[in-house]
Write a sequence for this structure.
């Protein structure tokens, strides 16, 4: 047979074994009965190679089958049920015979053609089959508990991740608010220290014709004064929102550019005070 044919046959066998394993782990009676039929003669043959009489071999196979049912109820299971069953049988046989004898018997039985296997007695097989529905029920109950634990673990993991993400967002928000509060406090201190609001008002009052020829400068200085007043009067609890609004307004009205142009026409003390106001305005615009 070509290699590709062998590989396809092996893949099919593995899929069948995987499907049977899944159904057995769910506690389906039909699947467990099919598993028993597929294993019992090979287990019985292996036991017969080691044990001196038929009764001992039948008893050991029955006990091994019950061990396998308990294994299927456990939290973890071996997907290759033949390998698992042979391992469980070997554990029982090694209490009654030398290890090397048992290992040889298991290898021989595992590779024996189906036609060369000994047949497990029908009456004893029926006893095992009659017990399958109850065993299936116990396995199904265990599967249900595993699914419940898995769902609980997933739910806990989701809640934990949500908590961690929420906590990080909260921490970041707290840190951002703290930084904004510090920035607001620093800007307010600068406005108050340099008496910038009063300085801007004085500049407006000094304009010779604020309603006519100096109307542009008056408008820019008045807008600057409003920004500084709102900045100075903002409470810490509203700092983040107010700074965001002021920053957007300064950018939209191009107030820093207009103030720079006004300053170019000023000299002396007025220019120095307006330059300090410009620094505050630039910091607000860059928030």
């Amino acid at each position: 047979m070509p290699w590709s044919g062998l590989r396809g046959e092996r893949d099919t066998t593995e899929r069948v074994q995987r499907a049977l394993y899944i159904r057995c782990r769910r506690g389906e009676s039909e699947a467990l009965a099919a598993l028993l039929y597929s294993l019992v003669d090979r287990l019985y043959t292996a036991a017969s190679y080691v044990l001196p009489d038929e009764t001992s071999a039948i008893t050991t196979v029955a006990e091994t089958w019950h061990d396998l049912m308990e294994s299927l109820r456990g939290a973890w299971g071996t997907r290759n049920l033949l390998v698992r069953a042979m391992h469980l049988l070997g554990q029982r046989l090694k209490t009654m015979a030398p290890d090397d004898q048992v290992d040889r018997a298991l290898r021989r039985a595992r590779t024996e053609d189906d036609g060369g296997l000994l047949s497990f007695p029908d009456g004893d097989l029926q006893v095992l089959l009659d017990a399958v529905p109850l065993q299936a029920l116990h396995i199904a109950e265990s599967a249900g508990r595993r699914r419940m634990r898995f769902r609980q673990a997933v739910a806990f993991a989701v809640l934990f991740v949500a908590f961690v993400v929420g906590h990080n967002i909260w921490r970041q928000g707290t840190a951002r608010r703290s930084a904004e509060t510090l920035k607001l406090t620093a800007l307010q201190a600068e406005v108050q220290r340099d008496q910038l609001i009063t300085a801007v008002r004085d500049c407006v009052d000094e304009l010779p014709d604020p309603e006519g020829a100096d109307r542009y400068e008056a408008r820019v200085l008045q807008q600057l004064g409003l920004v500084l007043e709102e900045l100075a009067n903002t409470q810490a609890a509203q700092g983040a929102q107010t700074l965001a609004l002021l920053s957007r307004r300064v950018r939209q009205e191009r107030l820093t550019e207009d103030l720079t142009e006004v300053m170019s026409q000023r000299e002396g003390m007025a220019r120095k005070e307006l330059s300090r106001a410009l620094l505050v305005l630039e910091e607000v615009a860059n928030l």
